[in-house]
# Entry
Amino acid sequence: MLQEERHQYILDQLKKHKRVLTEELGRALTVSSDTIRRDLIQLEQDGKLQRVHGGAISIGFNTPFQP
# Structure
């Protein structure tokens, strides 16, 4: 699968679910977690998502703080 296709899949999943997990994306796309991490870094640099531990969230997606 080409990088552009992976990026589009990641963005489509973010649109649907507001968050994605690195491991789940790797399994769905049959690529390594390292490949997904590099894709997420690139997409974050492009301003299309925000990386978080274990995956990424949509820009502006906030979860309420629960003490």
Observations:
- The mean pLDDT is 92.
- Strands lie at 19-21, 50-52, 55-57.
- The longest helix spans residues 3-17.
- The longest strand covers residues 19-21.
